[in-house]
């Protein structure tokens, strides 16, 4: 069986991927518009993006 060369990324379980050339970036404060909850409609489903007291973001269905 042929041996596959191992790299640091493979040993650590990481897959190296390039970023898309024109990925959009939106600041969470802009996205939430000063609120702590945002309703997102996607493919006929509703999702909620919520900012917690610890300044973390949670996406739920």
Radius of gyration: 19 Å
Q: Mean pLDDT, nearest integer? A: 83
Helix content: 10-25%
> What would CATH call the homologous superfamily of the domain at 32-61?
Complement Module, domain 1
Protein name: Hemin transporter
Region (Disordered): 1-26
Walk me through the structure:
With 61 residues, this protein is an alpha+beta fold. The protein has a domain at 32-61: Complement Module, domain 1 (Ribbon), CATH 2.10.70.10. It is built from 2 helices and 3 strands; from the N terminus they run ααβββ. The protein has helices at 8-11, 28-32; strands at 37-42, 45-51, 57-60. It has a 3-stranded antiparallel sheet, with no helix packed on it. Strand 1 and strand 2 (45-51) form a beta hairpin. It holds the Pfam family hemP. This is Hemin transporter. It comes from Marichromatium purpuratum 984. Residues 1-26 are annotated as: Disordered. InterPro entries: Hemin_uptake_protein_HemP (IPR019600).
Describe, in short, the structure shown.
This protein has 61 residues and is an alpha+beta fold. It contains 2 helices and 3 strands; from the N terminus they run H-H-E-E-E.
